[in-house]
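Late entry, evening session. Most of the bench is empty. Finally got around to the prediction I had been postponing all week. Sequence below, unchanged from the version circulated by S.P.
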Amino acid sequence: MVCAVGSRSSLSYIEETTFGTTPVGNFTELPYNTHSLDLTKERVAGNQIRKDRLPVTDRHGNKQVAGDIVADLANAEFDPFLESALLGSFTSDVLDVGTTPKFFSIEDYASDIDQSRVFSGCTVSTMAISLAPNQMVTTTFTMVGKDMIQSATEKTITASAAEVPFDSYSGDILIGDAEGVLSAIGTVTQLDFTVNNGFTPSFVVGSDSVACMPYGMAVIEGTLTCHYEDDSLINRFLNEVETALSVSVNDPSGANAYTFFFPRIKLNGATVPVGGPEIRLIEIPFVALGDISEGTNLRITRPTVLP
């Protein structure tokens, strides 16, 4: 008996032109660490009262796709998913928060048993990025979607470029006043932030699948963790100083920097606990607000691809 194993499994995707419809064409391999994509159905139970106390009706109701794709961020490999997370498109290698959703069909293929599951109508509802010492730049794309079909035939796949992932050693973190000059900060021990689009599947009478995928505001929040060395960051919180934050990540080549720029953030805390005799850290939660002059609350800049 052959059992499917994770080491023989792959993910690939194709962008949809019509929500929930898988187009004809090659899929693109997507590097990943883990994923939990699945289709679930609500249960609809009958309400009859019977003298024998036996429930006799239990039906399947609305269905939808949900799950996380966890990956090590790398040059070019995840650009379509970054665009999906910001509801925008790279223009001259710059991506701002926008208003146009991007949907994918995603194939989960188990090559050892030749079984394929294709999830359609998938988009990034939430993106979480984590930077910390001694790890790759970890990214979690929380997906929502419409439907799933099974097949014993793998899609035609364009192979991944196998780019080297970004790490926590190759890049810079800059901070300063909003609309002001930014300076390097060398005390950051961890930075985590999320982009939450609030996609909520909507259903209609007469169908058990998602009819449309409305979304909410681009809520971007994070936490900056730093060494407790002086009062500068605490004063930014106490005085409600509007702040700009720029974070660049890169691979060892030094040629593939991606920069995440928050033009206007509000620091909403500055906790300085004593957890033991070791070093003390400041934990600073923040929210990214829209900057009218920049037209966004997050800007991602990628390296220019030379011809």
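Two things to note before I forget:
The chain has one domain: 8-39+59-301.
The mean pLDDT is 93.
Will write this up properly tomorrow.
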